[in-house]
């Protein structure tokens, strides 16, 4: 990455309440942008092609020690998330030994599914990574995991006999928040591009505040892009949390602990948070 701060943009709608009102023109000379699905952003961040972005929370643990995460920003849910679904031909209780197709766009949710099926249910399924096309996935497997807008469209257009929301399943077992994405920043960029990073962090927090206040405009945008109903999108955005405070951190660190128990990550991980906490707006 050159002098500019390279920022990844998550192609899915779940980040829009944070990103939609981000004023790129104001920072034009200091930043550059790349848009991709989460798994691709994870890779770009790991190789240093970008400095910062809303990547899979799981990848924070994979690269522990190399990243910090921007204070007050995440994609989280306490209960149903509304866009991370297991589409299944059989009820969940009958998935022991099943073949599961996993979207190749995710890291957090595929490992969350492994935690749910293997640790919580005690099952031993087999997995195959696939492109996020529900019909092909279900031709080849008993159940399929999709995330983001792919999951939303699949639920509208190709409903499976059983559909499970992973945020809900996690909540049923733990009573905790689940954090799917974090705004991770490479530690070397914190050192070399600190002032641009401070401005970008402040602008994301400002944009998030505006997103909360003017959610109607974001809903109009996704309606034009994806269809659906205004009621659907309003519910969807209401069900997502975009803060990252103590409760979200506790939930995520418990997820990392579960992932370590299953050997999905090799070490215990505590989340290091960078930057000032968002100012609470007094009304
Ligand atoms: C809520 C979501 O959160 C996301 C899930 C991710 C993952 O599973 O790795 C990564 C980033 C977010 O886009 C979603 O994609 O539906």
TrEMBL record:
Its EC number is 4.2.1.151. GO terms for molecular function: hydro-lyase activity. It comes from the Bacteria. The keyword Lyase applies. InterPro entries: Menaquinone_biosynth, MqnA. Keywords: Lyase, Menaquinone biosynthesis. Pathway: Quinol/quinone metabolism; menaquinone biosynthesis. One of its GO terms (biological process) is menaquinone biosynthetic process. It catalyses: chorismate = 3-[(1-carboxyvinyl)-oxy]benzoate + H2O. Signal peptide: none annotated. Pfam families: VitK2_biosynth (PF02621). Coiled coil: none annotated. Catalyzes the dehydration of chorismate into 3-[(1-carboxyvinyl)oxy]benzoate, a step in the biosynthesis of menaquinone (MK, vitamin K2). Belongs to the MqnA/MqnD family. MqnA subfamily. This is Chorismate dehydratase.
